[in-house]
Amino acid sequence: MSAIIAGTYNSRDTGGIPLTAGGSTRTGVLYRSDALAGTTDDGIKTLTASPIGTIVDFRTDMEKTGLPNRVGTRRRFTAVQLPLLDGAFTGMPSPADLDEATMRELFVRIPTLADLYLRMLGTAAETFAEVARLVARPTDDTYNGVLVHCTAGKDRTGVAVALLLDAAGADRDAVIADYALSETNLVGDWADLMLARLKAWGVPPLPAITDLVTATPPEAIKAAFAWLDERGGSARYLCDGGLSDDDLEALRERIAG
C-alpha cells in the first residue's frame, strides 16, 4: 500500500476496515501517518484537498527538533500536541543526547514492543481518550477528519488507532492487519535511514533494537488487546481515561456510521 500523502511512508485513511456488525469504517474520518516533516508539495496539495482539519502529534519536543510538520499555508490545520515518551525510541535525533551510561542501560533493558505498548496503555489513558474526543467531536463541519501521527506512525499511532477502531466496533483481525501493515510500509528507505542513524551512533544492530525501530508484529498488538480485555475492553479503557458515554457513542457514529 502506497502512502496517501507524498513525502510520507506510512500514511493512510483507516476507512474501509470491516466492522463486526457488518459494513466497514467510514473514510475521511480517521487518518494515520508517520511524521509530516518530509511532506512534498504534492503531499501538501493532498492535505489541503482532504477533509483533515486536526493533526494530532504524539512526538516529543526532542523528536520535533529540526523536523516540524510541513503542511503548507493554503488553509489552517488545528495542531494538537500530545507528546508520549513511551514509543519515542525511533525519534532520538542526536547521539549527543545519550551519554555512554545511558546507552549501556538501553542495551541491557531493551523492551519488547509488547512491553512498550503495555507501559504506554498503563500511563496514557487520558491522552488516548483526548484523541477519541477529537475524532468524536470535530470542531469544523467541513474539515472534520483527524490525522494521528508520531515519528514512524507504528507504535504510539498504532496503539491509538487500534484502540479507537476496536472501541468503534471494527473487526479485530482487520485492526491487527492494519497495525501490521506499517512494517511493510516502512521497509526500505525509511527503515534503512533509521537503522543507519543508529549505526552512526554506535548502536549495535541487535535484533531487539531493529524490531523496536521497524517492526509491527501482530503478537505485539494482540498483547495490548489482551491487556485491555482483562480490564473491560477498549471502550471501557477510554471511558476510564475520561471519555464520556456520549462521546463514546459519537466516536462510534463517526467511525462506524
TrEMBL record:
It comes from the Bacteria. Pfam families: Y_phosphatase3 (PF13350). GO terms for molecular function: protein tyrosine phosphatase activity. Gene3D superfamilies: Protein tyrosine phosphatase superfamily. Its EC number is 3.1.3.48. Keywords: Hydrolase. Coiled coil: none annotated. Residues 126-165 form the Tyrosine specific protein phosphatases domain. InterPro entries: Prot-tyrosine_phosphatase-like (IPR029021), Tyr/Ser_Pase_IphP-type (IPR026893), Tyr_Pase_AS (IPR016130), Tyr_Pase_dom (IPR000387). It is an enzyme of class 3 (hydrolase). This is Tyrosine-protein phosphatase.
